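Q: I'm teaching a short session on how sequence maps to structure, and I want students to see two examples side by side rather than one. Could you give me a first protein with its sequence written out and its structure tokens following it? Keep the formatting plain so it prints cleanly on a handout.
A: Of course. Example one:
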Amino acid sequence: MREVKKQPMALKRPAVKTIAAKVKPAMDPARKQLMEHYESALRLMQERKFEKARSAFEKLLQASPTDMAERVRVHMCACERQLVESKANFGSLEEQYDYAISLLNTGYYDDAREQFTGILKKNKDADYAYYGLSVLSSMTGERDSCLEHLTEAIRLNSRNRIQARSDSDFQDMSDDPRFTDLLYPEIQ
């Protein structure tokens, strides 16, 4: 007689009963508003607007429930740390200028503007800071501001005119006759 192999019996599991369309309860309107403020403050952080973000988190902390308060505190600390770093002590105005240029090159235009303006508060004759502001204005499409700052940079140091002639950061200004007149006064 031939031996028949027995196959192991499949274990039958009890059917799990679930609710097919389980719906989350609607979010409390006050909680929803807090979440919107929280997301807004996070966006400010991402845009490197740390002062505004810190203020937003401070307001949020006052109304935050316990489960949210700790996250808010962490973000407030991060904003504080960034603000301290951004107010770094520079050994010279040239170091501050180099930092401003690095901010400009990485697209942090508001922070770069703040650094250039800070240089001018310390030395109103810093032609390189005016030049930096003119480049920044060109890159952000502020033509009048660009011309104003470049005019001042050239007034303080005529070599800025020569530099601006070959500076690719002014390419968006090349079609403006006022820019051409400023850079090539001898042609007029």
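Q: Perfect. Now a second example for contrast.
A: Example two:
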Amino acid sequence: MKNNTYEKGASNIIIAIVVVVAVIGIAVYATQGGNKPSDIKASSVSRGESAKQVAPDFSLDKLGGGTITLAEYKGRKPVVLGFFATWCPNCKRDMPHLNTLYEKYKDQVEVIGIDLQENHSVVQKFITEKGITFPIAFDANGEASRVYGVRYTNFHVLIDIDGNVVKSIPGDISESDITALFN
């Protein structure tokens, strides 16, 4: 009888510990925003959500020489940042589509492809094969991808003419995403 009471008491303590750990886990999950995508500086900037947040500037080496900065477009054009890698199957599909949209709207919107830490010659070959005509920049140390909350390839960030992030798009971009920047 004494042993049975001990086992019931031990079971109750274990159940209580599990409940406390679960409550703490739920509280942490809720304070971290659930499973929302993380974006720039931990704010919610995702498909369908609108937010005005100043886009972090960058200065990156450009394919073919020189540098490209985001600040040079502020007040001139909205910008689409397209984070990609040559090995990414989704990028291989989306980059030519993005280029078609760029060719159609390049007087109204700038597109900047940002390669995620690959060799320049590999990127040059990819861009040539795919017929990409928009500027390509190299995020050699991953700094731009970090400040924009990029966790995977084929990720787009839409920036309005005033230099504010308006939306991020994990995955393929649509024509309506681009035209929303200037309409």
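Q: What should students look for in example two?
A: Point them to this: Residues 25-49 have pLDDT under 50 and may be disordered. Also worth mentioning: The chain has two domains: 1-35, 40-179.
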